[in-house]
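Now for today's protein:

——
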Amino acid sequence: MRKEASINAWKQLYDITLKLDKLEPWNDLGDTQLVTIQLKDREEPVFCSVMGKFSGERGIAVFDGMEGLGDFYMILGAEEGDLPAQYLMDEHSSLTCFWGSMMNVPDEQRSVIDELDIRFKTISDWIYFVSYKKGYKPYQLDEDEVALLTETYENLYMVLEAVKDGKLNPDIEQAEGIVRRYNSENDTWEMFVKEIPEAEKEFPSVMLEDQNLKDELKNKKQIDLEVILDFTYLPVMVEGEEEGERPKNPLLFMAYDNTDGGVITMDILEEGDDEISRTLGFFISFVQQNGRMKTIKARNPWIFGALEDICEYCSVDLVYDPVEIMDQVIEEVISQL
């Protein structure tokens, strides 16, 4: 059950963020110079990315744990891959603070700012927070998220002060970041420069265990058909069952006939469904009814995780492709919403 943060908790978060603002951290750290903070009583660290040194958008994004680090690198690699930038933003989880225009501040955040009677330097220097969570719309931070961000920023402030004072000098050319961690043995905090940790977003691979079903699919005739598969998040809100619950972000699965043209199927994942089961379910149903397609093209790693094994077994070519035509199809779908 979601629990909103108290106005006092919000005050603590804004107090430390305004202290960070005075340090202007984007002048000292690039967005890839991660600050790794191992907080007390947490198994995995949090990773802070300071934005603004190489772009106009100032902010601090906090990624929780190794899964969060995988999300960071997934977004970082957006320019090198073929997945749409908006899909990646909807696919990841982070707690992000922005410095930006007053016009971009969500209504819920504006209410907090008004109640705290906070004044910013200019109309372009408003500070606001956004919680990103895979499968849900960007939303207001809840009680636990405000507490986590406050504790993280208190430690980040100590790191940034040390950077300002010249005590920590990570070299961006050497892919160095900064670590701050609590040493329970001597009850002290340690800070040092270290090579930036790396991680990959994990996408599980599955194997169909029903051997009879696998043989059935393999023995179906092969047809001269190329199919494109893809996922996209739709720009609409699906309200939760309970009042105040975070709105969900509907995920659309699409199969496109790239031989003759036209959409084969297009449907929104339902509660309890996921990318792997939906993709595998489509493959099984289609092959049973129509035969084995010759080729499947895709760019989404969830699809490869679902189909690599069964496609190899059934002699169906599974090919990585930018599938640019799907961007047009998605655009048409969104325009009709």
Notes: The longest strand covers residues 176-183. The mean pLDDT is 93. The CA atoms of residues 12 and 150 lie 7 Å apart.
